[in-house]
Structure formats: C-alpha cells, structure tokens
Amino acid sequence: MANAVDTTVEAGKREAGKGSAASAPAPRGTGKRTAAGRKRTAPTVPATPAAAVDVEWLGHYLLGTWAEARLESRRVAGRPELQRIEGLTLQEHRERVFGQLRLLVDEGAVNKAFPKRLGGQDDHGGNVAGFEELVTADPSLQIKSGVQWGLFGSAVLHLGTEYHHDTFLPAIMNLDVPGAFAMTETGHGSDVASIGTTATYDAERSEFVINTPFRGAWKDYLGNAAVHGTAAVVFAQLITKGVNHGVHAFYVPLRDADGSFLPGIGGEDDGLKGGLNGIDNGRLHFSAVRVPRVNLLNRYGDVSAEGDYTSSITSPGRRFFTMLGTLVQGRVSLDGASTAAAKVALQIAVTYGSQRRQFTAGSDTNEEVLLDYQKHQSRLIPLIATTYASTFAHEVLLTKFDEVFSGAHDTDADRQDLETLAAALKPLSTWHGLDTLQEAREACGGAGFLAENRFTSLRADLDVYATFEGDNHVLLQLVAKRLLTDYSRKFAKADAGVLARYVVEQAAERTVNGTGLRRLAQNVTDHGSTARSVGQLRSPKVQRALLTDRVETMVAEVATRLRPANKASKKKAADLFNANQNAMIEAARAHAELLQWEAFTDALAKVEDPGTKTVLTWVRDLFGLGLIEKHAAWYLIHGRLSPQRAQSVSDYIERLTARLRPHALDLVTAFGYGPEHLRAPIASGAELERQNEARDYYRDLRASGNAPVDEKALKR
Prior knowledge:
Shape: globular
Strand content: 5-15%
Distance between the termini: 41 Å
Number of helices: 27
C-alpha cells in the first residue's frame, strides 16, 4: 500500500511541476543593458538549493524540546482502549473516559508535574507536552485528565503548601479522589474577581463557612462535578473579621463513599453538550458548608486561628493575578492541543486530496487529483503554513512555562510575560484549530461529513476551546492592556501632543525610513513581474518591519485615544475604554500574529538541511505574506503599501501556494501521526485503491474495444 501511495504522490508532483523550484524566475538584472547600450554584468546570485523536505528530520524537529514525552504520549494515545468510540450514549461515553483515566494512572502518564518525593518527576514542560497529545485519542479524555491533574491537582500543588501536598496530592495523583475545579460561576465566567461564593471564617470553630448566596453564584460547567468528583478546589471570596480579602481557594469534600452529596452541598448535571460529552460537567452549590481552617490553600494568603489575615503580597490585585497565574498551564495546553488537532485534520485532508480524483479537466480519460486544483491548494496549504507557525510559537510558550514553573526563571516579570504570552497565543491557535477542522471537512466533501473520518466530532469537541480558560476576546483584551501598560511607561510624562506626534512619526518617518520601506508605499510599475514587484516583501526584515509597524502604530493610536481616561470619572473612563475595545483587541491580535511569525523565523534559522530550509522558507513567507494580505486594508489606509504592491502580495501568495503543492504531503507527514492517531478511512489508502480500481477498469474497457461510444464524439 505504501508503494502505491508513493507512486500517486510522485505523479502529483510531476503534474504540479510548474509550481516547482525549477520554474522560479531567473535572477533580475541578468543580461540587461545600461542607458548607453553597454551590456551590464549581473552580480553572481547563489543557486537556490533544490527544494526537498527531509521528512524524518523535520518530524523530529517539530516534536520540540520534549520530544520523548510527546512520543510516549502518542504511544499511549495509540492504544485502542484509550480512543473514542463514535455513537456512544452520554452515560457510556462518560464511564468509558473515567475508566481511561485509570489506564493513564497505570501507564504512569499523569505524574510528571508532581513532586519527586511524592512519586512525580517535577517535569512541567514534559507534562504539558504529553497531555496535549491525548487530544488525538479523544478530546474528552484530554480535558477530563486536565481537570483531574491539570486543574484540580495543580491547584493543590501550586496554591497549597507542604501540608496540602502531603495530605491531598497522593490520592489525587492515583485517582482515589476524583476532583473538580470550582472557579467558574453561572453569573461570572471570565470575571473571576467578581464571583459570588463566600468563605467566611468562624474563629470560634476554626472553620470556614462556604455559601453560594444566590443562584448566579452556583459553580457551573465543572468537569467531574456531575457524577465522579468526590472533592473540589472551590474559589470563594475570603472574609474574616468583616473584611473581604478577595478570591482564595479551598479544598472541599463533595461526596461520601456512596456518591451522595455531603450535607449542605447540592448540584445538577449540565447534561448533553455540543461536544466533550465524555466529561460529566455539572453545577454545585453550597449552604453553610464548613471546612477546617487548614483547608485554605494558603501559599499566597493565610488566616490565623484568631482570624487575622496575612499575605506575602500586599497588593490585593497583584495577589489575585499571582494566584490565577499559577494556573496558566490550562491555556498553555489548549494552545498545544488545538495545534495538534489542526495537524491531524490537515494530515487527513491533504492525504485524501492527494489521492481523490474528480473531473477530467486536462485529459479525456484521467481525472485530476484534487490537490492539483488551485482552489484546493489555496484552501489547505495556507492552513499548513499557519499550523507550522502555531507549532513553533507553542514551543516558545511551553519553554517559557517550564522555565517559570521549574524555578529557572521565576521572577514576577517572568510570570507576567508568561501570562501575556499564553493569553496572546491561545486565542489564535484555538480559532485556527476550528477553522482548519471546518475547511478540512469541506475539502473532503461528503466523506468529510462521515463521523468515521473524525472532522465533525473533533470540531464539536474543540468548539468550547475558544472559551475554555478564558474567552478568547477577553484574553486578547488582557494582552492589549499589557501592551498599553508598557506603552504608557515609555511615555509616562508625555502630553497628548507628544503622543499624537509619535503616531504620525510611526506612520511617516521612523518605521518607514528606518527600514527602507518608503518605496513600498509608492505607485510603481513593475513591468508585469509579480516576483519583482513583491521582491522586497520576501525579505524577512521587511516582513518583520511591516508586522511590527502595524502593532506599534495600533497601540499608539489606542493609547492616544485613551489618554483622557486618566483624568476622567470612572464612568467616563469606562465608556472611553469600551469605545476603543475593538481596536484594543485587534492590536493584541496583531501582536500575537507577530509573535507567531517571529517564532517561525527563529525556528527556521536552526534548520541546516538546505532543501528543507528552502521549503520551510516558502512556508514562512506564505504565513507572513498571508498576514499582510489579510490586513491589506490597514496597510493601504495607513500608506504602508500601494494598491499595486498589495495586489502583488496576493498574486505572489498564489505562486507560493502552487510552489508548495509538491511538498504538501511531506509537510503534513512530518507532523508524525500514524494511522492509529488519524483513524480516518479516507487517509488509510482506501481512496487510492478505489481510484486505481476505477482507472484500471476504464483502461481495460477501452483496450478491449467494448467501450461504448460517447455521444459527444459522434457529434464531433
């Protein structure tokens, strides 16, 4: 079967030969004459290395720093008993996934992040890298295991102290105590600081009394809450001696050995959802539920037996964000898991597109391979480019996460940078994952809609990733506030006039002149050559400058408009921020896109194989120029590109896409997922068998002389 697939791939490459490196335009200037008529000798231009992907090397490179952890997790995810079965009932799916958690415990796959003295490995990066790969088995398994060990267990680990580690973690690690992470409330999702649940200290009994005083304060959408959870980490407003010290976390038992709620605790099942139905999401409410004082996870804030509150962080706001920042791994893992799902979708769709034939466009007898059609290429190949960018950006994020949580680089500034980076990248990757699954599904036609080929269920499961661990737009707003904070520090004493002049300088002088981009804004004639017209834009320096300029200018413009908020009333300041919210979020998104491009470019610099580097450079350029094309209106309005040059960008993107067509299958094969991970019949070679059978049938029929005559031939 592999040989048959290879034969078709090579045929596809030959059919797409016009987009290969061999057809690239000759170096400009060769053989030109000067104004005086003398022949000018062109400078020697190094030959472009033959474009060819070293799939094995690239596959290992894409695994990143924690390659072994990923490979081990892929091995585990390849076990049939850990994989999703389509068509299960709600109850069957829940019980199957809960049983799979025990298999993960038996595999030793859940303890990497926990302390060595408790049987863990203190490997935070490897833990997240392995956890992300479980999405290929069943997203419900990935998320339910994330609830148990990535949220419930991590909250005890990172918000608790040694007492809590010794008392609670062993049973969490071995699943003797399945748990919930009770932060979100029906009335407050992303706005955690405003949750309504209270934990009031009773000094006489040395206990906290937990209450949900109204319906909107019920804890909601909690994994493990509906059926399996026997304890929870509950987030509540800590009140002692009449003072509210803000949100803190408490370890709270939920159910007895028979699975019944303990006194004062109640709940409901969230029921059937749009996806992830292997997880028992539910609601919890508390009425005068008492827990011992020591159940307060007190790493960042404590209450004495007498009721006195103390904290090593004096600022309530900074304390709140520090506590929530310790739980950033949820956003980190969603970034990686979404990228993994996009890889699976593309590996299935590109494999199918390389085998499936439709319409006799260029032949009287042979139908065309789908991936040889320009539209099919433009649907899938740019998504490959973005997936590579997301992969390299995620490696940067995961490395930063490991540095912070291993203690190698764990300053307050490091944690803030990690929070901002996670908040920037998670929205882009989760949206990209959904877009890729949808486009890949459509690109596979009716076959893509069959449940057996996985697109529909994967997309349904990943749908909620866009609001998991913070709504994507809210996260981008956090990024924007960080960008504006950094900007305001730079111009802390500047008046509005200075800021306005800065914006003008951004547009007219510093960025344009400083990077030699002024010519890009001119209406030049390029003699019909797209390559010459877009030549400057192929330079990584120019791409970086354009992407950076957009971020800096957008931030400066928003900061200028928000300047009056410093002296306005609270209401007017809020109105001013609200009036600029869209612009803030768009600036943050531009910043995140720049981060992805930078990560791709940095990763490209480490590629040594010339052929692989050539192909990946095209992929990076496709991603970078795709961003410029996507935001062409901004570049035109702000005078960064002329209309002609903007059109050349679109034209060159089409050329790059065609040039990458012969390498598309290699690029997705390097993602490294085997049949046990794809589990899609249309990516198994079955389509190729059908196509070959049909072609052989018609060939033999023609050779036999018994083929019917086409009516159109008679009329001709």
